[in-house]
Every structure is written in C-alpha cells, then in structure tokens.
C-alpha cells in the first residue's frame, strides 16, 4: 500500500512553531523597555511606572534566544531535505524583499541628512540637553547659512549641542572604506570557492571577512571618539550618527551572520547546490558595502565642505 503521507510536491509545509509568537512578545518587551529606559534617562518618570534598562535587557535576551532556536530549526529543515529548489527560490525572494525594506530604512536617514544639507535656511527645532523641544529657530542661526554648518562658537545661536568641524574623509573614513571593500572581495572569494567545492577556500574567505568586519567596527569606534560634534542638540550630529551608527549596527549583525556561516562551514554544512544560509549572508554583506559607499560619498566627502576658521576674537 502506498504511503498516504508521502510528499508529492516541492513545497515545505512548516511544522507548528512557538518562535513567531514568542518573538513578537519579546520584540514588544524590547520596544517598551527601550522607551522606558530613555524616558527614565530624560526625566526619571519611565513608562507606566517602569524604570531602568532591565525590561529592555530581558526583551533583547529573549529575542536573541528566539533567533537562535528559530534559525536552528531552519538549519535542521535544510538537512532533512525540506529546502527543495522551489523552497530555496522562495527563500531568496524573501531575502530580496528584506534587503529592499532595509534600503528604505536607510533612505529615511539620507532624507533627514539632505533635508538639512540642501535647505540650511529653513526652520530648525531647538532642543534642550534632555531632548525636549523648547522652541523654533532659523536654520541660518544654527548653521551659519551654510552646510556643513559653521562652528557653533562662530554663530549667535544658543544651542545645547556643539559642532566644531566635520571629519576629514581621507583619514579613517577612507581606511574603513578600503577595509569594507576588501571584505566584499573576500566574501565573494568564499562564495566562488564553495561553488567549486573548495572547502579550504570557503573557510579562509569567511574567516578573513569576519576579521575585516570586526576591524571596521573597531575603527569606527575610534573615529567616533574623535568626533567634533555631539549627537544631541544639533542636526548635523543627529543625522550623522543616525545614518552611520545604524550602518555600524548592520555591520555588526552581518559580521555575526558570517561568523555563524563560518562555524557551519567548518562543520561541512554547505554544498555547492544547497547553501542558501551563506548566500543570504553574502547578499546582506554586499548590501552593507553599497550603503557605506553612499555614506562615504554623500556624508563624508560631499558633506565635508571646506574647513571653517573661527573669526578672530572681537569680530
């Protein structure tokens, strides 16, 4: 008698899983915890009586645990043969849509930056050190009528933030650009090695990519420590740190993504015909590379402007 439960199609009917529901609850806890943490930092009130970072830490820990167990189950499905060519194609569509959503995420930060850069004579929200809106002022007062802004000390505006100078794009930012572009080459090398079933080349390429990703994060932390502007109170600092900071977060996430792929490669998980996990990581890493090129060209180079000298005392 034929097996009535035999699979006669190329699709994967996913088994019931608790991780989507638990992840949703954990994400909600993380969001509420972050809001409570920031409100506590600003005015000590918190949200609904919740103060401090403990709820944020609990929610984030739960999210990390859910990610581990959920993706562990996906890996097991791949080993069981559930990821047929049709399923792999749909997984690729899902990754493409995810990256497209991330593109729009960064569009928001570029939009905020160019809104200030291209219209420096508009109206500017004046915030205090606690981040509260205390009034409106002309952007001419804050920016000195240009972009990048003139140093705050050279304007008549009383702003709680500070702006002294932009970064020299041909220093650490250029070095970081070269590091990230090199990492794009090494991950491509690893991909081609896998397609040729060269396990040694795959491992070496992934290892180098992870090292370069860590190096990029270290260099950006050093760069931030020498910033001539603050995040709070001044539009240049807030738009700069939001755009480059979220990119830095994506670099860290991508580095973890590739490190997991490295561990899986060492265990022999990937084959030339079935390696979507690594392919998704490589796509994500190339996306991170391209975003950085736009950041470097638009914010570091185009937005660097001409170094502004403070006027002599008494002028």
Description:
- The chain has 8 helices and 2 strands; from the N terminus they run H-H-H-E-E-H-H-H-H-H.
- It is mainly alpha-helical and 315 residues long.
- Helix 5 packs antiparallel against helix 6, helix 5 packs antiparallel against helix 8 and helix 6 packs antiparallel against helix 7.
- The chain starts with 18 loop residues before the first helix and ends in a 14-residue tail after the last helix.
- CATH third-tier fold name of the largest domain: Four Helix Bundle (Hemerythrin (Met), subunit A)
CATH superfamily of the largest domain: Cytochrome c oxidase, subunit III, four-helix bundle
The Cα radius of gyration reads 24 Å
Secondary structural class? mainly alpha
Total tally of structural domains: 2
**Overall strand count:** 2
**Mean pLDDT figure:** 83
Placed side by side, the strands forming the largest sheet appear as: 1-2
The biggest sheet amounts to: 2 strands, antiparallel
**Number of alpha- plus pi-helical segments:** 8
- Percent strand equals under 5%
Catalogue the unreliable spans. 307-315
- Assigned CATH architecture of the largest domain: Up-down Bundle
Order of helices and strands: HHHEEHHHHH
Helix share bin: 55-70%
């Amino acid at each position: 008698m034929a097996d009535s439960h035999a699979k006669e199609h190329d699709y994967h009917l996913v088994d019931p899983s608790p991780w989507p529901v638990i992840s949703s609850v954990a994400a909600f806890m993380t969001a509420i915890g972050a809001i409570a943490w920031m409100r506590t930092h600003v005015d000590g009130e918190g949200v609904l009586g919740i103060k401090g970072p403990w709820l944020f830490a609990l929610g984030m820990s739960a999210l990390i645990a859910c990610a581990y167990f959920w993706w562990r189950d996906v890996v097991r499905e791949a080993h069981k043969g559930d990821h047929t060519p049709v399923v792999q194609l749909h997984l690729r569509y899902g990754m493409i849509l995810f990256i497209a959503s991330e593109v729009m995420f960064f569009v928001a930060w570029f939009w905020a930056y160019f809104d200030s850069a291209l219209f420096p004579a508009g109206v500017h929200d004046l915030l205090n050190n606690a981040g509260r809106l205390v009034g409106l002022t002309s952007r001419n007062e804050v920016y000195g009528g240009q972009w990048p802004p003139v140093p705050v000390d050279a304007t008549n505006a009383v702003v709680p933030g500070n702006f002294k100078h932009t970064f020299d794009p041909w220093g650490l930012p250029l070095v970081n650009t070269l590091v990230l572009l090199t990492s794009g080459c090494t991950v491509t090398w690893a991909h081609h090695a896998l397609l040729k079933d060269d396990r040694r080349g795959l491992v070496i390429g992934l290892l180098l990519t992870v090292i370069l990703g860590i190096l990029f994060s270290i260099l950006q932390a050093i760069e931030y420590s020498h910033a001539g502007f603050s995040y709070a109170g001044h539009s240049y600092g807030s738009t700069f740190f939001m755009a480059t900071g979220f990119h830095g977060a994506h670099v860290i996430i991508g580095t973890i993504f590739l490190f997991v792929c490295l561990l899986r490669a060492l265990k022999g998980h990937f084959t030339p015909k079935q390696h979507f996990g690594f392919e998704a990581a490589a796509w994500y890493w190339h996306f991170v590379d391209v975003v950085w090129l736009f950041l470097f060209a638009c914010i570091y180079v185009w937005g660097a402007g001409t170094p502004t000298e403070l006027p002599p005392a008494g002028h």
